[in-house]
Amino acid sequence: MSGLYYEGFTEGETIEHDRRRTVSESDNQRFCDLTMNQQPLHLDADFAAETTFGERVVNGLYTMSLAVGLTVPDTTDGTIVANLGYDAVEHPNPVFHGDTIRAVTTVLDKRLTSDGDRGIVTMQVDVYTGEETLVCTFERTALVERAES
After folding, report:
1. Residue 112 — φ and ψ, nearest 5°?
2. Are 91 and 128 in contact (CB under 8 A)?
């Protein structure tokens, strides 16, 4: 277990996650197949070539899901009770096949549950290609265990 208990989170803390992932055409295709999303912008090279982007765009929900996975080892691996919500999701720039994404988490808020047995932590996750291009941002709220309950 590498995740943090409630007490391990600090409001305002920023976590630069070391794990990165290069998105392949196969990743995008499989995600679209699994979710039955047949949007031609994600799958049809000829269609996508005629759009503003000029090529296929990786499914934004895949980008978001991958970002959650990249952040779990440093945040909630083994300490989570449940993800309570994902809010304020934005995709300001596209992700393309071959892009490598990385994630940065900032702890926005933390509070104990009404019975004090667990904690609720809200984190902002910013997802980048390269060093500076923001491709996704969202808030993730998780119910986590306390180290001492």
Report:
1. -80, 150
2. no
